[in-house]
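--- STAGE predict ---
source: upstream dedup step, 1 unique chain passed
mode: sequence only
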Amino acid sequence: MTNLWIAAVILLAAAGISFPFLGRTTPAIRFALPGILTAVALVLAALSLTDDGTGDSVETADPDDALAGLNRPPAPDPVAPDIEAEGADLIEQGRNAANAGRDDDARELFARAMDLFQAAGLNAGMGEVKLQTGILDQIVGQGERARDVFAEAQGFFVAAADPVGQARVALALGNLEKAQFNNDEAFAAFSNAQALFHDQGDWSAEAEALLGRGHAERRLHLVLASRRSVARAMAIYEILDDSAGLRAANQSVDELQTYQDQNDRQEEELIVERTNAQQAGDPSAEADVLVRIGELDHRGGHIESARDAFTQAAALWAGERSSAGQGRALAMLGDLERAVENFEAAAVAYGAALAFYQDAGDDVGAATVLVGQGALASMDHQVGGNHYQEAQASFEAAGHSSGQGQVLLGLGQLDHNAGQDDEARLKFQGARAMFADAADTRGQGEAELALGDLDREAGNLAAAVAAYERSLDLFHTSLYRPGEAWAHVGLAAALSETNPREASVNFRLAAGIFDDLDMDVRRTQASNAAAALD
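--- STAGE serialize ---
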């Protein structure tokens, strides 16, 4: 009966009738259900206190029954506040206060959020508070404290197994180090953020981290690496149709125009060396410098200037009646034309180079030309095979490991084209070992590229992706842009079904390099492949 009186009082309270002696209620205990529905619900709840569903009153249950009531679910507790939502709201209020310049209020709000998350043992929440506090410290010029606070934030996100939180801290730390011109530290932080965002598929954040890394690389005079970082960010922003991101990326591209890359600096030194040779009246020395300039330009993707350098060198050596010199310049011109798929021009250059090397009695030089001719005959197993076998004998006699690697690479390609993939794989692996023995990173990249193509065409996509990624790293190390383009194409093709957005990024990167190489057909193909995936 007592419970019925309690129910009646609750009913009247829900209906809006006040009881002065009960005191003033607080918002925390206001009822959420309006009007009569609340009242009905509360009456039913009160009645349930007097009846266990069998008609027996709880008050009249056997007092000696120690298990009485344990077979019923406990009465629900009042709904606990949502700690995460409440903490997030406090953080947002703190951010707003910080943006309004009310730093003390912001810190108080962050502290209240920290108390909530700490009491509940929520590591991710505590990490977020520390992250926002560190950002505030940085804004007000307390960089050293910010760095310590970011370290605490990272620890909480690691404990929470929250990679996105870890990436956001790394990005914030990168911006701090960038502002303080700690370029090595900024590079490390931005690289960490980029890798974490990439793994989580957060493309926009990855692009932001890439631009930060590109900025640090530029300051560290790693200009080619910076261009690659910015190019990837640009490709991502294009796919996302992010106009603000594209503006930021274009600004980075403009800033890079005033910086010299590694090849530019080497070429400046060679230009001085060429001038000295000219002043000394030494055409052969000048020609030697020109072929080194041409090789540098070929590697860096400056095709027209490379072509001019090789042609000038051949002319100078012709004036000196140097067959070996002319063979060298024309062989390198043939390699250049083959790399950019000007196959007829390559065949003409190789033919002339071979004749000059044979006239000079230079068997190793002639062997390098035979490798190029074998590559041009890659669809003719017999003709290509004859060129490679002749070259192999000369390279073996000279103990030329890199040359032997090129022969194995060519023979493997002939096997692959003939459908003999097991034999091709063995030769590609042998070529890779030969190139490693000669410390020829470009050759190693070509071997990995060939293995990637083999695995991709066989449907071994995971192995193909790994090989293409290794080839990219090797081409980056050797600064060989044509190989880099083909590695991006292979990687994109291997990822097209499983990760179309990453595939599109790689097709776009390849298209950019093909554009630099004046390979218009390949650029169009790569651009169209990217568009088909968007």
